[in-house]
Structures are given as structure tokens and as C-alpha cells.
Design goal:
This protein has 678 residues and is mainly alpha-helical. It folds into 3 domains: 127 residues, no CATH class; 156 residues, no CATH class; 202 residues, Rossmann fold. Strands 3, 4, 5, 6, 7, 8 and 9 form a 7-stranded mixed beta sheet that branches. The radius of gyration is 27 Å and the shape is globular.
């Protein structure tokens, strides 16, 4: 009861602490304003003129033809406009994804090259590696530039199309508008291509009209049901894949780390193919569900004020009833609509909601808005909520919102906080204050008392690798990443390339056609570096903590069958096990993460379950090469879905120039962790 009163008090004070939240602002620009008025053309002539303009490269002609087609009000224009928008939306989305991936690759490759050039002064054997990395970096920069050019080309045209299609529908007679929107809805539900479905759903968010937010939420639920039926096929397929992976791992060990036979590789691909197809479809359904969420939020932001209350009530009822895959996203719609009229509703939801998964998810969504006015709601949850995961995510959210008012309560909470919550509070304070103190309450309290009214929150810096100060504090430290968690899983890559030197020389990208780059005198292998640091981390894990170790090559297995409680005998056994590990096989990152969630007892539902662990450390020296999927986006999608309610922090460590910085950095950023590259 006291918790609810506290939340209510802070929510009621919200308007005094914040600027009013504006409704989602949409572009008012119309291409009709940028061209000279044209003589009206007939429907067929306007359509043909637009098609001709699309075949050319003249942007002004395309824009003028689009304006003429919209002005004509031709009923047949709906399909032509939809098809061009779907093409453009897909090209723009693909270019953005590629640019993000390439930018991370460029950043990592630049850092690797600088390390090699520094070492080159004292180790001439690195000359060829430096040359190879320079060439690779140049190629990556070229690919990044091409992706950015595609964004510049497709992005503005997509924006014009989007606004002009909205103008087109608003100018149609009601009968024609219904027919046109039916075409959009049919494509959103049944188009053979997921790209086409994504484009149609996106347009519905902008043009769907009254009641579209509720209809799009219903579509979201339908997509989640499609995904659920598809997901039921996967477990049996994955069992067959797992059996084959075990056989391959045993074969690699017999070969002493040599290459698998072509026959074994082909047999594995045959077994894997169907499971990989299902996993790929699941990822596509997740992308479509996210697009439905975004579109429904936009439609709600455009809803007539007189109908808004009814729409919100319908969405709240639907969110309660929605199945796995749609439930949490349905709550997201209400936050992402960014309507000031919904602030009171969101406060009520946070106060009344019994499911911790929903409260935690709403905290994440409110923080993602970047609007400081949401800080009172998050602070209320941080102070009052009984669930550690909710409080932890509220602390991270307050850091994102740069809330000065949160510093004092965060400092005070350190006095009693334990485990991962203590680490999360400390990380929020370091970011909010710029002070690199450890997690003890006393030094933070002294510092805060000395600040008075003069303190201002500094600009936020993106966290990548934890600072040295954190590494010297309490708890365990693994490759510079510190945590006081008492429920941890370590996931260790033991693929064949882990026998390579930590210094990339003749084989900096782990090309399997080149010989192993064995450590020279004075150097150590990646496996040695990993096991040495893992042994230190295990020694730093507090007595009474629960933990386990997952190993992965081509197959995936564990040190113990279940989570174990730390005591001195267990610590010694774990260290002896770590020191005896051998390297062989491929890189099955998907399988390792899947097994980790199984050990944590995290299901494929979105309702709250107390996970058995709250922190994962994933180490690898390469890119996924084995497993049901080796696609980085599919692995990220799997983790996104599985971790939505559990809220497990995932830290990632990448060794060598062959690591996938896009996958490792995204895994960490999306799951509250830190990415450390070596």
C-alpha cells in the first residue's frame, strides 16, 4: 500500500517537474508546395507519367509526377503508390541496417589496425598483417559509404511518398478510400513477401484513419499467433541438429582440430536446413510484429482526441489478453504514441500492474522516449518496487533520462543494495555524475553531500568497455568488466581458432585456408588468455552465488548439468575444469545462448518468471559458423524475444580481428551489458 501511495504522489507531482509532452510531430511538408501548379491530367496519363518518372533518375521529375498523381485522385493509383513505397521502404531499411553493421566493423577494424601498427615497431613479423588490415579497412569504408549513399537516395524519397500517400487518401471519396485501404490491409496480412508486408503496415500507421491503432494491435496479435504456430515446429528440428553437432564435435576432437570432411559438412547442412528456415521465418515475424507496434503507436498519435479514450481502453484490454509475442508490444503502443493525454494512464498502469515483466517493459519504453518528464515515474518505481529487475531497469532508465533528481535516491539505495542491482546502480551513478567511485555507499554519500545545489548532470557518454576503476572494485571481473552479480553464467568459446595467438600475425582474420598462427615465445593463445581470466573471475565470485560454465565449439555443453552454489570445494573444481579445457570445432553462438536461457529457466512466454541467473558473460574469438542459425540478426532477434521479460544482463568479450563487432556490441547494448574488444 505504501508503495502505491508513493508512486501516486510522485506521479501527481510529475506536471510540476516536467514540460508538457507534445503529441508525435509529423512532417507538414508536402511535395505539392515545392512544385509549380500543374494542369490536371487524366487518370491514365498521370499514372503513366509517374511510371516513366520512376524509370528515370531525375528526382524533380519524380516528385512532380508524384504530386500530379496524388492530385488526380485516380483510384488505380493506390496499388502503384503502394508498390513503389514497399520497394523504397525495403531498400531504405536494408541500407540502414547495413550502414549500422559496417560502421561497427569500421570502428573495430580501425582500433585493431592501430594496435598492430603500434606493435609493428617492435615485431616485424606483423608487416603482412598490417597490410591486410589496411586493405580490409579500406574495403569496409567503401561498403559503408555505399550504404550511406543508398540511405541518402532512398530516405528522402520514402518520406515524400509517405506524406503524399497520406494526402492522397485524405483527398479520396469515402468509397475509394475504403477500397484503397483494403488493399493496404490485404498486403499487410497476406503479401507473399515480408518486405511487402512491412511496407504496407508502415503506411497503415500513417494513413489508416480512425480506429487504425486498435486494428493494428489486432494484426500484431495475429502475427504473434502465426509466429507461435511456427515456433512449435522448431524444438524437434533442433534436437536433430544438436545430435549432429555432437557428432561433429567428437570428429573434430579425433582429428585434433583439423577440418571436417566434406561429407560430414554436407550431412550437417541437410539436417540443419529445415530448422534454419524456421528460425529465419521466426525472425521475419518478429520484425513484422515490431513494425505493427510502431505503426499502431503512430496511428494512436494521430487519433481524434474525442475517440482517444475509447481507443486506449480497447488497447489496454487487448494488451491483457494478447498472447506471447504480442503482449509486451501491446503495452509499448501506449508509450510510443507520445500523447500527453496518456501520461496519467501510464502512471496508473505502473501503479496497478501486478506483472513485473510489464512494469519492467514499461520502464524500458519510457526511458527510450528520451523525455526527462518521464523521470518521476521511473524514480517512483525505483524507490517502491519490490522486484529487483524492475528497480534495476528503472536505475538504467534514469541514467538514460539524465535525471539529476535521481542521484540522491540512487546513492541512498547503495547502502542496502546487493548483487547485480548494486552494480547497476553504481553504473548509473558513474554515468550521471562522471565520478568513478566504487559501489560502496560511504564514498558516494560523502561526495553527494558536498555537491549542494551546484551539481549538473554531464552529457551522456556511450559505455562500451567498463573503466579501470570499476574493475578494481568488489565482485568478479572478467576482461575488465566488473559485476557483483550472485547469479552468473559464463559462456566460453572453445573453437579451434582459440588456439591461435592473441597477437594477430599471418592470420588476423582466421582464414581457415591459412595455417594456424601459433603463439610465439612470450605470447599466449586466446584460449590461455580466456581461461586465465575466467579462473580469476570464478575466484572473485562470492560464496553462496549460483553459477555454471557453458562451453561451445561445434557442439554446446556445460561444466555441470545444473546451476551450482559456490563454496570453496566448488570453486576449486571449477578452476580445475577451466584449466583442462581443449580447443576444437566451430563457433556455435546460437546454441550456446539457447542453452544459457534453458539453464536460467527462461521460457518462451512473456509473463514474469524469476530467472535463475541475472548476468551472462559471453566470450568468443570469431563469428558464428555452426548452429541452427549463423545469422547475426537472427541471433539478436532470438535473444530479444527470449530476454524481453527476463531482463538478463549480457556482457560480451571479443578476442581477435575475426570477431563480429556488430553481433557482440549489439548483444551487449540491447541487454544492458558491456562489450569489451581485445
Amino acid at each position: 500500500m505504501a508503495s502505491r501511495l508513493l508512486i501516486g504522489l510522485l506521479v501527481s507531482l510529475g506536471p510540476a517537474l516536467q514540460q508538457p509532452t507534445a503529441a508525435l510531430a509529423l512532417p507538414k511538408y508536402s511535395i505539392l508546395e515545392s512544385v509549380e501548379p500543374a494542369q490536371p491530367k487524366g487518370d491514365d496519363e498521370a499514372l503513366e507519367s509517374f511510371r516513366r518518372a520512376l524509370r528515370g533518375r531525375d528526382r524533380e521529375k519524380r516528385s512532380a509526377a508524384l504530386a500530379e498523381l496524388v492530385a488526380s485522385g485516380a483510384g488505380a493509383a493506390t496499388e502503384v503508390l503502394l508498390r513503389e513505397y514497399q520497394r523504397c521502404h525495403a531498400a531504405w531499411s536494408s541500407a540502414r541496417a547495413e550502414a549500422r553493421r559496417f560502421s561497427m566493423e569500421v570502428e573495430r577494424k580501425t582500433h585493431l589496425l592501430s594496435q598492430l601498427e603500434e606493435r609493428l615497431e617492435r615485431d616485424g613479423s606483423l608487416q603482412s598483417s598490417v597490410g591486410e588490415q589496411r586493405e580490409a579497412l579500406l574495403a569496409l569504408r567503401g561498403e559503408l559509404e555505399q550504404a550511406e549513399q543508398r540511405i541518402e537516395r532512398e530516405g528522402p524519397w520514402r518520406g515524400e511518398l509517405r506524406e503524399q500517400v497520406a494526402a492522397f487518401f485524405s483527398g479520396l471519396a469515402s468509397g475509394k478510400a475504403r477500397t484503397g485501404r483494403k488493399l493496404l490491409w490485404d498486403d499487410a496480412r497476406k503479401a507473399p513477401s515480408f518486405d511487402d508486408r512491412l511496407g504496407a503496415v508502415d503506411l497503415l500507421g500513417r494513413t489508416g484513419g480512425t480506429g487504425s491503432a486498435v486494428e493494428l494491435q489486432q494484426l500484431l496479435d495475429e502475427v504473434a499467433d502465426e509466429r507461435g504456430r511456427l515456433a512449435k515446429r522448431l524444438p524437434k528440428l533442433e534436437v536433430d541438429v544438436r545430435k549432429m553437432e555432437r557428432r561433429l564435435q567428437e570428429e573434430m576432437l579425433r582429428l585434433g582440430g583439423g577440418q571436417l570432411s566434406r561429407a560430414s559438412q554436407e550431412q550437417y547442412e541437410r539436417v540443419r536446413r529445415e530448422a534454419a528456415g524456421v528460425r529465419s521465418e521466426l525472425t521475419a515475424h518478429s520484425q513484422l510484429a515490431e513494425q505493427c507496434t510502431e505503426a499502431a503507436a503512430e496511428a494512436l498519435s494521430l487519433e481524434d482526441p474525442e475517440r482517444l479514450e475509447r481507443a486506449v481502453a480497447s488497447l489496454r484490454r487487448a494488451a491483457k489478453k494478447a498472447g506471447a509475442g504480442a503482449r509486451l508490444r501491446s503495452f509499448s503502443i501506449l508509450v510510443r504514441a507520445r500523447r500527453a493525454a496518456l501520461d496519467e494512464t501510464l502512471g496508473e498502469m505502473l501503479t496497478e500492474e501486478r506483472d513485473a515483466a510489464v512494469r519492467a517493459h514499461l520502464v524500458d519504453e519510457l526511458a527510450a522516449t528520451g523525455e526527462g518528464g518521464q523521470a518521476p515515474l521511473l524514480l517512483a518505481l525505483f524507490l517502491a518496487d519490490e522486484c529487483m529487475q524492475v528497480r534495476s531497469r528503472a536505475a538504467s532508465g534514469l541514467e538514460l533520462l539524465r535525471s539529476r533528481e535521481a542521484v540522491g535516491p540512487l546513492v541512498a539505495a547503495l547502502e542496502k543494495a546487493q548483487g547485480r542491482l548494486r552494480t547497476d546502480i553504481r553504473e548509473a551513478l558513474v554515468s550521471l555524475t562522471g565520478q568513478k567511485l566504487q559501489s560502496a555507499f560511504e564514498p558516494w554519500s560523502r561526495w553527494w553531500q558536498g555537491q549542494g545545489e551546484t551539481f549538473t548532470v554531464p552529457e551522456r557518454r556511450k559505455r562500451r568497455v567498463v573503466d579501470a576503476g570499476a574493475a578494481s572494485g568488489q565482485g568478479l571481473t572478467f576482461f575488465g568488466i566488473r559485476s557483483e552479480s550472485q547469479a552468473v553464467l559464463f559462456i566460453l568459446d572453445v573453437s579451434g581458432s582459440m588456439d591461435f595467438s592473441m597477437v594477430p600475425r599471418n592470420n588476423p582474420t582466421d582464414n581457415p585456408r591459412q595455417p594456424f598462427d601459433r603463439p610465439k615465445e612470450g605470447e599466449i593463445s586466446r584460449l590461455q588468455a580466456a581461461t586465465d581470466d575466467l579462473a580469476r573471475a570464478v575466484r572473485g565470485l562470492a560464496a553462496g552465488s549460483v553459477f555454471n560454465i557453458v562451453l561451445y565449439g561445434s557442439d554446446v555443453w556445460t561444466w555441470q548439468d545444473r546451476l551450482v552454489t559456490m563454496d570453496e570445494d566448488t570453486r576449486l573444481d571449477a578452476v580445475r575444469f577451466i584449466e583442462a579445457v581443449d580447443a576444437a570445432g566451430g563457433t556455435n553462438i546460437y546454441g550456446a545462448l539457447k542453452l544459457a536461457f534453458e539453464l536460467a529457466e527462461v521460457g518462451d512466454d512473456e509473463r514474469w518468471e524469476q530467472p535463475r541467473i541475472d548476468t551472462i558473460f559471453l566470450l568468443t574469438d570469431g563469428r558464428p559458423s555452426m548452429g541452427v542459425t549463423t545469422d547475426s540478426d537472427e541471433i539478436l532477434s532470438f535473444v530479444r524475444e527470449r530476454n524481453a521479460a527476463a531482463g538478463i544482463v549480457i556482457h560480451t568479450i571479443g578476442l581477435s580481428g575475426a570477431q563480429d563487432p556488430y553481433l557482440l556490441r549489439s548483444l551487449a547494448e540491447e541487454n544492458g551489458g558491456t562489450y569489451a574488444a581485445r
